[in-house]
Design brief:
- By secondary structure, this protein is mainly alpha-helical.
- It is built from six helices and three strands.
- Strand 2 (about 55-60) and strand 3 form a beta hairpin.
Length: about 130
């Protein structure tokens, strides 16, 4: 299945579902901060678009309200975003890492965690 491309608002809607589990449109809208909260009809439109993209689905109906649940995981969506971001740099990670280091956003713990992940990945690839 091809992963859908999600807008910022769509990601915020998905975040509400990933955090809280299945929700009605009103509950999704109320998950947004009071200041700058999108209108109910805006959230409704975006939820229906996400349904078409197969990022979420109607889980059940309670009275007149449809309850929606995420189909794609947070990890899957994050991987897609990282892949899209890296494509802006020709798929190269070095410019991104250099910027993170220069801006002071990459800690020694981050580096140690990345090294551990690389070692684990290398070990898994060696195993038959």
């Amino acid at each position: 299945m091809r992963l859908p491309k999600l807008s910022k608002l769509e990601l915020q809607i998905m975040e509400a579902l990933w955090t809280s589990g299945p929700l009605a449109i009103r509950e999704i809208q109320e998950a947004f901060p009071q200041k700058g909260r999108p209108a109910y009809t805006t959230v409704q439109t975006m939820v229906y678009r996400l349904e078409v993209k197969k990022a979420l689905r109607r889980a059940r109906k309670i009275g007149n309200a449809h309850i929606f649940e995420a189909v794609i995981s947070r990890d899957t969506a994050q991987r897609r975003l990282v892949d899209e971001f890296l494509s802006l740099f020709g798929g190269r990670m070095q410019p991104v890492m250099a910027q993170l280091i220069e801006a002071g956003n990459l800690t020694q713990k981050d580096v140690a965690d990345a090294e551990r992940l690389l070692r684990d990945l290398a070990r898994r690839k060696k195993e038959p």
